[in-house]
Automatic annotation (TrEMBL):
PANTHER family in alphabetical order: LIPOTEICHOIC ACID SYNTHASE (PTHR47371), PHOSPHOGLYCEROL TRANSFERASE I (PTHR47371:SF3)
Keyword Cell membrane: yes
Source species, domain of life: Bacteria
Biological pathway: Cell wall biogenesis; lipoteichoic acid biosynthesis
Membrane topology note: Multi-pass membrane protein
Keyword line: Cell membrane, Membrane, Transmembrane, Transmembrane helix
Pfam family, one: Sulfatase
Name the record gives this protein: Sulfatase N-terminal domain-containing protein
Membrane-spanning parts: 7-27, 49-67, 74-92, 112-140, 152-170
Keyword Protein transport applies: no
InterPro entries: Alkaline_phosphatase_core_sf (IPR017850), OpgB/LTA_synthase_biosynth (IPR050448), Sulfatase_N (IPR000917)
Length: 600
């Protein structure tokens, strides 16, 4: 065989091997469906499949040039891809989650893998890993004795592939050409990494979860600047009215909003009567949501941490999946209540795969995470597949009755999650003005049940001897409204949901036309309930005085007017800059502010 033919055959073998390994990853991700893997590669997402193949080719070249042997490189590459694929299949089976870059850190947890796959398969894989590892080391040793020309070629390929992998690792940089290549056809789904991987492929989803800076460094960031800010706001903190530690219940209600606020939509009946019966007697109003039709975890991030998504880099699309799992310390309402002697419980009547909540809640400091598999109450309403709000509230009531230690609960409901049509046999409300009115009508029935359950829950809280504070809000509007209806409404209408705060023992003053952002919830609650504030919350209250609510391209002034651009005078800009510096310090900087009890 002449050299040209030899190289041609070798190139063809490598090409086929790369394509096969990419198909293997898709096969494992798609529950071992050959049909789905083939359709993904050669019908639905061909561009993304070949971009992924390019990434795998660079990885293969790196292994081969490092070992100085195609055989050793191919063996190590094949073993690596096989393990990643099997791990993906197992993780999808057990947790409905794909493998993330951070999961590679678990490679040393051999005992865990033995329990998952069984002793026999584990021993086989371990022997295979040792054999391939020894082959790789042997070929690496032999590579030092390669001919000069071969050695030069090897070093060149090693350098190029190394640079390629470094470049690929910066996938989330705005200027990254590979990311731009994906963006031509990719529809990223940050709220569900399972769906994100399905939509862009294993390699694309994996790269999407690589590092990205949370924020650009604000001008003037330094330890001295943070010390000045912390000292300034520590002086604003006043002693609380009492030392009482009431229970605190956060309720983020899936897609809860009032459709009657939308222009062009007509609703018969009053689905939110019970909700407004409660809201009009307490502090309530509208909450500015970052997204329309999704983005649940981002609203949750803002509500728990009091940090704003508006300040983050645009590519930091979902801190729950891209930032928090990489952090060791993140101050939040959870850590604050924990420091003050509370037990902290997160409840989500669904599985733990969404938004990496299991990892995130652990980092935030929750004592326990109760999901659909560990709840005592799992009732649903009619054909609704999701656990009802009433059942979730009963889970909280039981624990409040049993525990004497002050409790902090964070509940993320599921009852009002899409899809909506077909949930209920009897719908009490009619709608006109939308293409799919039946869908909206079932949604109205959903929020009716949700509002009633909330009202009943607060009434039960009044019977308990301990004081309980409730913060309730909808995370975003449901994505069920037609394009024509959306065009009749401005951004403000499509990004406002309902919120209220309830004190089981005292009345909170109702304020007409109130518009707020979720990162203001905690400081407002502490101020209105007479709880001990923190310097960070004092900064937020000062910020709220000049910016009652804001998200990217949506800034609300004190006259409740919306603006696309931020307009502040010099003094107001200083407060906004203080907030930016603190948020950068915690999420991207050196966390100097943790040293001065700024968050306690």
């Amino acid at each position: 065989m002449n050299k040209k033919l030899k190289y041609l055959v070798l190139t063809l073998v490598i090409f086929c091997g790369i394509i096969f390994s990419n198909l293997f990853l898709q096969w494992c991700q798609n529950e071992l469906s050959i049909d789905l893997a083939i359709k993904f590669a050669f019908s639905w997402h061909t561009e993304k499949f070949f971009l992924a193949s390019l990434v795998l080719l660079i990885l293969f070249i790196f292994f081969s040039s490092l070992a100085g042997s195609l055989i050793a490189g191919a063996s190590f590459y094949s073993l690596f891809i096989t393990i990643i694929g099997i791990a993906t299949y197992l993780k999808m089976s057990f947790r409905q989650e794909p493998v993330y870059p951070d999961d590679l850190q678990m490679v040393t947890q051999l005992g865990f893998f033995r329990e998952v796959i069984g002793t026999g398969p584990f021993v086989f894989v371990l022997i295979l890993m040792i054999a391939v590892g020894l082959l790789f080391i042997y070929q690496l040793y032999r590579s030092f004795f390669l001919a000069k020309n071969t050695q030069i070629l090897r070093v060149m390929m090693l350098c190029l592939s190394s640079l390629g992998l470094v470049y690929i690792s910066h996938f989330n940089d705005e200027s990254n050409l590979l990311r731009k290549g994906y963006d031509q056809t990719a529809l990223w789904i940050p709220y569900s990494q399972e769906m994100n991987y399905y939509n862009v492929g294993f390699v694309g989803g994996f790269l999407y979860n690589l590092r990205v800076d949370a924020m650009k460094e604000p001008e003037g960031y330094s330890q001295e600047a943070i010390a000045d800010i912390t000292e300034k706001y520590q002086e604003e903190v006043e002693p609380a009215e009492s030392k009482e530690q009431p229970n605190i219940v956060y309720v983020m209600s899936e897609s809860f909003s009032d459709p009657e606020h939308l222009q062009g939509l007509s609703v018969s009946g009053n689905p939110l009567k019970e909700y407004y019966d409660l809201a009009e007697q307490t502090y309530s109003g509208k909450m500015l949501s970052q997204n329309y039709g999704g983005g649940t975890a981002n609203i949750e991030f803002e509500a728990l941490t009091s940090f704003s998504m508006e300040l983050l880099n645009p590519q930091m699309t979902t801190p729950y999946t891209m930032l928090i799992p990489k952090m060791d310390d993140l101050p939040s309402l959870v850590s604050l209540t924990k420091d003050r002697g509370y037990d902290a419980t997160a409840i989500h009547p669904y599985d733990t795969s969404m938004y990496k909540r299991q990892d995130v809640y652990s980092i935030l400091g929750f004592d326990r995470f109760i999901d659909q598999d560990s709840m005592d109450y799992t009732q649903t309403i009619e054909n609704n597949p999701y656990i009802s709000d009433e059942a979730a509230y009963q889970q909280i009531l039981d624990q409040l009755q049993e525990e004497k230690t002050p409790q902090f609960f964070h509940l993320v409901t599921m009852q009002t999650h899409m899809p909506y049509e077909g949930k209920y046999d009897n719908v009490d409300y009619q709608v006109s003005g939308n293409d799919n009115n039946r869908n909206v009508e079932h949604y109205l029935q959903d929020i009716h049940y949700s509002g009633k359950a909330l009202k009943d829950f607060t009434q039960e809280l009044e019977k308990l001897p301990e004081r309980t504070l409730v913060v309730f809000w909808g995370d975003h509007l449901p994505g069920i409204y037609s394009d024509q209806l959306q065009e009749q409404n401005d951004e403000a209408n499509l990004h406002q949901t309902e919120f209220l705060m309830v004190d089981s023992k005292e009345d909170l003053q109702h304020e007409e036309g109130e518009v707020t952002s979720p990162f203001y919830f905690a400081p407002n609650l502490f101020e209105k309930a007479g709880l001990q504030s923190t310097p960070f919350y004092e900064l937020l209250l000062d910020l709220e005085d000049i910016l009652p609510a804001f998200e990217a391209r949506m800034y609300v002034d004190n006259d409740k007017q919306f603006h696309e651009e931020l307009k502040l005078n010099k003094k107001q800009q200083e407060i906004y800059q203080d907030y930016r510096l603190i948020q950068y310090d915690i999420l991207q900087g050196e966390q100097y502010s943790l040293e001065n009890d700024f968050f306690n």
